[in-house]
Structures are given as structure tokens and as C-alpha cells.
Design goal:
By secondary structure, the chain is α+β, with helices and mostly antiparallel strands. It is 20% helix and 22% strand. It contains 2 helices and 5 strands. Strands 1-2-3-5-4 form a 5-stranded antiparallel β-sheet, covered by helices on one side. Strand 1 and strand 2 (25-29) form a beta hairpin. The radius of gyration is 14 Å and the shape is globular. The protein starts with a helix and ends in a 9-residue tail after the last strand. The chain binds guanosine-5'-monophosphate (5GP) and zinc ion.
């Protein structure tokens, strides 16, 4: 998907501050961080929205959450707490149509979200 921003980051056509990279996932810092730790956990496979997930993607999505937990632990937030968020479509504020799990930590996060 050459017109997809996150596919272009995955292809290294656009720079990002990468914090984790393996066969399936790329994790990089959000360009407009909303918390002291704000990274995006992105599958290398292009999937536009959570609505487009198939049963075959179950392990991939599981690996995204497990990577979030590992990164939170690495940064010392396992016990303090952290938030993981998938935004889906307009009313949730999705702006990049390649799924990504936000990992936010390092401050008190209010509920309900805005
Ligand atoms: P969404 O609103 O789709 O859930 O989240 C998209 C996120 O991507 C936003 O938090 C936004 O700050 C981030 N973002 C948008 N463009 C770029 C970019 O070029 N580089 C990086 N690292 N993050 C981006
Ligand atoms: Zn993409």
C-alpha cells in the first residue's frame, strides 16, 4: 500500500523513531505524544481497521497486546498502569487507516476518554 503512511514507515520510506522491530510488528514513537510514553504498535501486514480483522489475524493481534505489555514492563509501567487503544473509524478519531495499538503511560489517564 504505497499510499498508506504506516506502510511507508514500515518500508523505511518515511523516518520514525523505532523502538521494536520483528517479522510481524514495528513499534515506533507517536509523532504527537499524548503521554510520556506513547508508542504505536503496528502490524507489518496492512489491515485498514479493526473491522477488517479476520480469524487468521487472531495471533497477530494477540502479539500486539503482548508486545504492549512487554514494552510497558520495560519502561517500568506494569504496576503503575498504562492504556492500550485501538481507534476505529471517524467517531473514535482514527486518522491512519492501518491498524495500530496505542500504548500510553506515564501520567494519570482519565476515564471516560474524550
Ligand atoms: P489514530 O488517530 O489513527 O488512532 O492514530 C494515529 C496516530 O498516528 C496519531 O496519534 C498521530 O499522532 C500518529 N501519527 C500520524 N502521522 C505520524 C507520522 O508520520 N509519524 C508518527 N510517528 N506518528 C504519526
Ligand atoms: Zn498500511
Amino acid at each position: 500500500m504505497t499510499d498508506c503512511l504506516f506502510c511507508r514507515i514500515i518500508a523505511r520510506e518515511i523516518p520514525a523513531q523505532i523502538v521494536f522491530d520483528d517479522d510481524d510488528l514495528l513499534v515506533f514513537k507517536d509523532i504527537n505524544p499524548q503521554a510520556p510514553l506513547h508508542v504505536l504498535i503496528v502490524p507489518k501486514k496492512h489491515i485498514a481497521t479493526v473491522n477488517d480483522l479476520a480469524a487468521a489475524d487472531d495471533a497477530l493481534v494477540g502479539s500486539m497486546f503482548r508486545r504492549a505489555a512487554a514494552l510497558a514492563k520495560e519502561h517500568g509501567y506494569s504496576d503503575r498502569g498504562y492504556r492500550t487503544v485501538f481507534n476505529c473509524n471517524r467517531e473514535a478519531g482514527q486518522t491512519v487507516f492501518h491498524i495500530h495499538l496505542h500504548l500510553l503511560a506515564g501520567r494519570g489517564l482519565t476515564w471516560p476518554p474524550g
